[in-house]
Design goal:
By secondary structure, this protein is mainly alpha-helical. It contains eight helices and three strands, in the order H-H-H-H-E-E-E-H-H-H-H. Helix 1 runs antiparallel to helix 8 (213-230) and helix 4 (85-108) packs antiparallel against helix 6. The chain starts with a helix and ends with a helix. This is Urease accessory protein UreH-like transmembrane domain-containing protein.
Length: 233
């Protein structure tokens, strides 16, 4: 149990960092708002944390759905003898399906959010596909509270199988630890990326990774589950 939990904990950290770094919308809007409105770094940091908490809370609520499934399945006695356990198989299946869905989104060029900054300092958010023009009426002006709502309604789906594991083991302490770790690493990664952008430090181009965000998240969950089931991690 302890060894498997360490694997799940590593997966939670990986997903928190990957999900944030590969999604420029997790930090670029704060940098743009800060520059256009003349915010201090302190105020920029405050809004980053507020919106980040909204994003994490919605992800945790989604993950609690997976936890409920794990809690109920753990009551089925014959599943306890399955190689790798129900949690491992759940992560394998979820990760595989989520990865395939991510590849499908990339291949089909599904619409995604973008933020535009104008000369007057205003920022607008809109959804589009690559190579697709967007009319002015389809753009919505961004304010700090609009940003909060956007983050609140945009959870991280891979949290579902992450909280499934401790729930299947009836470990409330494990669930709480995973939530704290996921929250911490998500917020720290957002703060680091905002800090780098605020001071115009560019280490690498993350925008090209954006379209692979879901695929990478699913792959992380799949590898974690496959290690439990097939490699006795």
């Amino acid at each position: 149990m302890q060894h498997e939990f360490q694997i799940v904990l590593t997966a939670a950290i990986t997903i928190a960092c990957l999900h944030t770094i590969t999604g420029p919308d997790h930090y670029l809007p704060f940098i743009a708002l800060s520059k256009s409105r003349g915010w201090s770094f302190g105020k920029t940091l405050l809004w980053t944390i507020i919106c980040g908490c909204g994003h994490v809370w919605s992800s945790v609520l989604l993950g609690l759905g997976g936890a409920a499934i794990g809690w109920n399945l753990s009551k089925i006695s014959w599943l306890e003898g399955v190689r790798g356990g129900i949690a491992g198989w759940f992560m394998v299946l979820f990760g595989l399906l989520y990865c395939i869905w991510g590849l499908y989104r990339t291949y089909k060029n599904k619409s995604h959010k973008h933020f535009d900054t104008y000369d007057d300092g205003s920022i607008y958010v809109f959804e589009h596909k690559h190579g697709e023009a967007v009319s002015v009426t389809e753009r919505h002006k961004v304010t700090p509270w609009v940003m909060f709502i956007i983050f609140l309604l945009g959870p991280c789906e891979p949290m579902i199988p992450i909280l499934f594991f401790p729930a299947a083991q009836h470990s409330w302490q494990g669930m709480l630890l995973l939530i704290v770790v996921y929250t911490t690493f998500t917020l720290v990664t957002m703060i680091v990326m905002v800090f780098l952008g605020y001071y115009s430090i560019s280490l690498f181009n993350t925008e090209k990774l954006e379209k692979h965000m879901h695929t990478l998240g699913g792959l992380t969950v799949f590898i974690c589950g496959a290690g439990m089931v097939f490699m006795d991690w």
